[in-house]
Fold this sequence. Notes:
Layout: E1 2-6, E2 12-16, E3 24-28, H1 38-43, H2 52-64, E4 69-71, H3 73-76, H4 82-98, E5 101-105, H5 123-130, H6 140-145, E6 150-153, E7 159-162, H7 167-174, H8 178-181, H9 191-198, H10 208-211, H11 229-244, H12 271-281, E8 293-297, H13 304-314, E9 321-326, H14 330-347, H15 362-373, E10 381-386, E11 415-420, E12 429-432, H16 439-450
Parallel strand pairs: 3-4, 3-5, 5-6, 8-11, 8-12, 9-10, 10-11
Antiparallel strand pairs: 1-2, 1-4, 6-7
Helix pairs in contact: 14-15
Amino acid sequence: MRLLHYNDDGEFSLTQFFDDIPPYAILSHIWGLEEVTFGDMMDRNMTSKTGFDKIRFCGEQARRDGLQYFWVDTCCIDKTSSAELAEAINSMFRWYRNAAKCYVFFSDVPRPTVGSEDRPYQLPWESALRASRWFTRGWTLQELITPASVEIFSKDWERLGDKNSLERLICEITGIPSKALRGTPLADFSMTERMLWAEPRQTTREEDMAYSLLGIFDVYMPLIYGEGRENAARRLREAIDGKEKGIKYEDFSIPFSLSTASDIEHFVAREDELGEIYKALSGDGSRRTVVGTVILYSLGGIGKTQLALSYTPRYKDNYSAIFWLNIKNKDSLKQSFAKVARQILYEYPLARWLSNINMKNLDNIINAIKSWQGLPYNTRWLIIYNNYDNPILASNKDPATVDITKYIPEVYQGSVLITIQSSEVEISHLIQVKKLVNIRNSLKILSNASRRKEVMDGKPYLT
């Protein structure tokens, strides 16, 4: 989770937290035309945009409330990364629930003013509040219900009240019962009742009508923008039904198979390298550091593919799923991803959404598999990219080069193993696979390949 910090010099900075997230405030609002994005924050190009006023207000209000950090969806999520966006949407309910303060900014509600004698002074802004677009948007449903502390501000940044003081008015506007606003567990409300809360609301992207309800029903599912509202709603219902029937969402097991990989009959165990791979890939299953991604590099014919093949059966019990992809060129990569998609679809009962994917469209397949790998609790998979021999390098002028970063899951879970000839691709932990120098290992290769056991006994081998 990325959080914004507003320092004493009036500067804003982003910090990413994985564990021990500090107390923070969170903003709820309707997007405008000039919002500050994650890219704007990275380029320090945000102060000229209209949306910067929201960020500044949120930072200042958080400081007044004694909070050093705050979160704004426009710039704390890198929306150019489909995997990060999927992770954020599946985490959004929890982020709002855990916020110390939620500031709701009503861009279409004016500041409180004194009205005429026949109208109480609240009526001008109360009428505007009832008509506000904020109450019509899909995402703001969870932003209203989930946080314990919700404070409401006018378009002029003046406080109008909070969820408690305006409870009656909010209940009248939304039809949501007061006990839901007060923190009663949502599981105490029927599925139909919760659906009715969302029925009059709208989202800009049609699929978001389903995605915005994931937290409301406490389910997780991959995001497939382009599938349409009906397909997204159907998958949401399937996820809800699966939860009610007791399907274990943490069970992502795929039977171990390397049917597409080469034979390892003639492999001689390289115990040192195997131990180093295991050490680098072990731990908490996270890819927050070099732990979780390993690159095996050597010239062709040295044995890096065989080393990867030997690692998988030895440590298969450490993983819920192991996938082997041939990344020699884009055609082989496409075939490998399509096979992985079919394997997940066949074995994983909640992955029926993969059946809607066009298996001829590589981008769709990759995004779908990345989404599956990024699901909560799906942390124990291993994906092996073999034969990455045509990488994008300054020295490589081949127009058919492959950019592996497009195909590696952009999530902080799971494990990745890559075999490559070049040591210039420095994605993470590098292990050089060297020529065998032990004479007995060399003799063992010869013995295995020739099927002559006497070679290991020092007996002459004649052709």
